[in-house]
Amino acid sequence: MFTDTDSFCYHIKTDDLYKDMTEFSDVLDTSSYPPDSEHAALRQLYSSRNAKVLGKIKTNVMVPPPWSWWDCDPRCSPCRYPDGRQS
Hints:
Strands 1-2 form a two-stranded antiparallel sheet. Strands 3-4 form a two-stranded parallel ribbon. It is built from two helices and six strands; from the N terminus they run ββαβαβββ. By secondary structure, the chain is of the alpha+beta class. A hairpin with a 4-residue loop joins strand 1 and strand 2.
């Protein structure tokens, strides 16, 4: 787990991250999720209800979610995805 002034990252063990997120979607701002995504879970999570609401958790959409993440410094956080891509 790490944090800085505007980010919070933590370790999650789950079989289906997006399915689990539906259980607490009332505290999330998912307005940036693609409403026409090919992924059903993202379509289900999309909502503009909490858009820009103070105190709601804004997530960055990553499909599929990364398998691993390295925080090297504030401007460099490479990810590795299940399909082998890296950023």
